[in-house]
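Reviewer 2 asked us to include a model.

Predict the structure of this chain.
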Amino acid sequence: MGVGQENLYFPGSWCYFDFVGNTTGNRVMSYIYALIGISILSVTSTINAITIYRIWRDPDRLRYLEDTRRISGSLDSHVMIFISAVTVVFVILWTPLIVVVFLHAANIRNENNEVELWFLRMTVCNAIVDPWLYIVLRKESLEKIIYILRQCTGNPSQENEALIS
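Predicted model (structure tokens):
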């Protein structure tokens, strides 16, 4: 784009676009980054929330989401649990960096210290956590977790299938 520059951040081991600089180009780039980030977070959260709400509100819509190639032909609620978890993790891990970039652009925050490093590390963790969410929140894994919880509470029953499928 031709705006902004890169900067070496605390402790001098990582480089990113300069969101702490005071030049017009750096501030423009910071505002663009923050606004696009806030937009992505908002749109993703809103669309996922609307999707989950509409499916739970109107069970007749479930048939539109059925996988006719499967023998059971039912929509598994574990998919909704997975969508919710991925969305929450995404928002929790990305929001701090986006907010700190905006605060730097607005000249509310001027420091370049370990806070920026931790927020960048949090955003990188999103790519690490998402595959683990998939592994843990698979239908089979959720059934096993519910089975173990029911065994621990002394209520072993077959209701775990109704909760997951």
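The mean pLDDT is 79. The chain has five helices and two strands. We have added this to the supplementary material.
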